[in-house]
Amino acid sequence: MLIKSADDRESDIKILESLLNHPSASASTKRNIEKEIKAIRSGVKGEKDAAYQIEYYYGNGKNWAVIHDLRIEHKGRVAQIDHLLINRLMEIWVCESKHFNQGVSINEQGEFVSFFGAKAFGIPQALFAASRSI
Q1: What is the spatial distance between Cα 66 and Cα 72, in angstroms, rounded to a whole number?
Q2: Are 82 and 50 in contact (CB under 8 A)?
Q3: Residue 21, SS3?
Q4: Is residue 131 pLDDT above 60, yes or no?
Q5: Side-chain half-sphere of 99: how many Cα atoms within 13 Å?
Q6: Pairing of strands 91-95, 104-106
Q7: What percent of the chain is helix, strand and coil (3-state, nearest 5)?
């Protein structure tokens, strides 16, 4: 059962685009704004692709609760969870979406690796989804 869809980020992009066109914005500021717009669009694409797959398999089921883009605030601290799945057995899956332009692989040592051009770099395993039964 789908409880919450992902938030729309289009208003954030529009605000950044208006700042990008501000006459007093320096070239450096404009580059930073353009990078942020690109990062938001890339993140939205990754989360949208993951949400589609999650909803396809679990969104209409009676045994799963699906929450996308959950924001939790506690004592001045904030956590943002891309996808939260909870089943009837109280198994909880917290999933973080990432979008890698050139793919991800696992090397001989079992480490996750992404690519930038021809260069491979390691990805901290904390970025990948984990599950835990309660």
Answers
A1: 16
A2: yes
A3: coil
A4: no
A5: 16
A6: unpaired
A7: 35, 35, 30
Tokens of 53: 């797959």
pLDDT of the residue at 100: 65
Nearest-angstrom CA–CA distance, 105 and 122: 10
Structure tokens at 80: 């943002």
The domain spans of the chain are: 2-133
pLDDT in tens, 5-34: 888 888 999 999 999 889 898 999 999 999
The SS3 of residue 74 is strand
CB-count burial class (<10 Å; 0-12, 13-18, 19+) for 7: middle
Q: Is pTM beyond 0.85 here?
A: no
